[in-house]
């Protein structure tokens, strides 16, 4: 796998990562993992790879944009000394252009600000960890003509470009969602096109695990 034994993997992002986690709990405790893809990944690693002893940490906060991550990066990432950091951010950076019609323009995260801030986070982290995984933000939307999806694709392109520039793994979660939506309705995965339901979270968790080299069918080393 992309992650080594006896290491800490920290996931950071917005509500898609948060999913009702207990902020007061010790990082890595069951109730600190939330009820979404992060918890599912932790469960899979614990059940299928017990010999790896992977500690998973959830530092998602609902409503966050990349600028919010920057404000708490030292406390919520660097101070916890993770071995790997997985970043999933961008949907709120885009969504605010559509759901905040009267928001002052300076409060919006433009593409340039998004890229510059994201790169700063990478610069602050890359020498202190074994690996950084860049996860594409995503929407559950079939129509390629949807204005918000079109805007999101520009931010996805930034994340992919940063991954290539910094030689980091890029997990294209939008491609996974799009492939599913060729077969089924988006409502099986999300009620609002943004927040996954349990089905959606499992789809995302499975995609991330696959990118990490996880194998559900592997035989235990003790068998």
Question: Keyphrases for this structure?
Answer:
223 residues; alpha/beta; Rossmann fold; five-stranded parallel sheet; 8 helices; 11% strand; globular; phosphatidylcholine lysophospholipase activity; SGNH_hydro_sf; Ester_Hydrolysis_Enzymes; Lysophospholipase
Describe this structure in words.
The protein has 223 residues and is α/β, with parallel strands linked by helices. It has a single domain, classed as SGNH hydrolase (Rossmann fold, 3-Layer(aba) Sandwich), CATH 3.40.50. Helices cover 43% and strands 11% of the residues. It has eight helices and five strands, in the order E-H-H-E-H-E-H-H-E-H-E-H-H. A five-stranded parallel beta sheet has the order 2-1-3-4-5, sandwiched between helices. The longest helix has 20 residues. The protein is globular and about 50 Å long. The mean pLDDT is 95. This is Lysophospholipase. GO terms for molecular function: phosphatidylcholine lysophospholipase activity.
Name the CATH superfamily assignment: SGNH hydrolase
Global geometry: globular
Proportion of residues in helical segments: 40-55%
Taking Cα atoms only, what radius of gyration do you get, to the nearest Å? 17 Å
CATH fold description: Rossmann fold
How do the strands line up in the largest sheet? 2-1-3-4-5
Question: Any low-confidence stretches, pLDDT <50, length ≥5?
Answer: none
- Provide the CATH architecture: 3-Layer(aba) Sandwich
Number of domains in the coordinates?
1
Average pLDDT level: 95
Note the beta-strand portion: 5-15%
> What is the CATH level 1 assignment?
Alpha Beta
């Amino acid at each position: 796998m992309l992650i080594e034994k006896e290491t800490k993997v920290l996931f950071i992002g917005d509500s898609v990562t948060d999913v009702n986690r207990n902020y007061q709990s010790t990082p890595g405790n069951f109730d600190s993992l939330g009820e979404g893809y992060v918890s599912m990944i932790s469960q899979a690693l614990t059940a299928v790879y017990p010999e790896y002893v992977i500690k998973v940490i959830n530092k998602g906060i609902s409503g966050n944009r990349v600028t919010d991550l920057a404000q708490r990066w030292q406390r919520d990432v660097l101070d916890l000394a993770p071995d790997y950091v997985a970043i999933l951010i961008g949907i709120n950076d885009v969504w605010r252009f559509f759901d905040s019609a009267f928001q002052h323009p300076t409060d919006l995260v433009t593409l340039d600000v998004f890229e510059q801030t994201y790169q700063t986070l990478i610069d602050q982290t890359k020498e202190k960890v074994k690996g950084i995984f860049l996860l594409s933000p995503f929407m559950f939307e079939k129509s390629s003509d949807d204005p918000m999806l079109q805007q999101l694709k520009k931010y996805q392109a930034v994340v992919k470009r940063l991954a290539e520039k910094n030689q980091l793994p890029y997990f294209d979660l939008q491609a996974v969602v799009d492939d599913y939506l060729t077969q089924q309705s988006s409502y099986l995965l999300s009620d609002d096109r943004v927040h996954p339901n349990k089905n959606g979270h499992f789809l995302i968790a499975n995609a991330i695990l696959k990118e990490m080299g996880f194998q559900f069918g592997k035989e235990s080393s003790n068998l």
